[in-house]
Amino acid sequence: MAKRYSEHRALNIFSFEVEKWEYRLHKHNFFELIFIEKGSGLHIVNGITAPYDPQSCFLMTPDDEHEFIIEETTLFSYIKFTEILLQERADAVWQKRMKTALQHFNFMGQEIIGEESDRSKMFVLLRLMQQEYRENKLSNRLILLDLFSAMLLIINRNSIIRDDAGKKITTATGDKIHAILAYLREHLTDKEKTSIENLAVVFGLSPTYVSEFFKKHTGESLQQFLIQSKLKIAERLLKQSDSSITEIANTLAFNDVSHFNKVFSGRHQLSPKAYRKNSQNR
Which residue from 26, 30, 215, 219 could staple onto 3, CB 3.0 to 4.6 Å apart? Predict the structure, then answer.
């Protein structure tokens, strides 16, 4: 069983250089943004092995287990954070946007940044965060939060050009499907905004063509996408929050708690209550 590490600080930024990785396959109760400053080797995430080299970026969630195999002395820079960090800013819209971004990352062990220009921006933001973290100046924390949110938005921008299997959506789909996916992720719990009628208006499609267009370019129906996306969030909330099952059902805009139980059990062959209990016993 993978060892689990804990972090009680909402935000921790640090760097270290090593020739040999000493932290065997492990999990943690926090998120990690990992930046490769120099060096090369392999990164093993949830059984999937991917190479890394300078300028690589990875995002680990509390659900992931991973380790590195270092081939060349590597300088790592880390940003560790918990969901408590998102609560430090008294802005409900900002909190929702950041949480939505985090809940949809799924890179299957790959680098989180596919665009070269965005990778450069991520390292610029890292430098600014490192400097701000070391200093104790006026508005320090607010600046850190702004820099951090810019990072998440860049990662989210890169995530929406990948499908659920971690492969890039082909350019033949055009910008429209990317925009639709981003819009759905942002408004996942708003039934009116994710309705076929509204999507048709917002994206200039015929209401009768929306479902066909979506399935043609994503391989799944609009309803499947919405349900599966909500269930992924539900899994994380059941594992990491103290929210009641009724609160989770309401937060994710299921019809009612009975509907949530039925849909969740259909996917996991476990009720939400049993799923939470099992995850706590691991």
Answer: 26
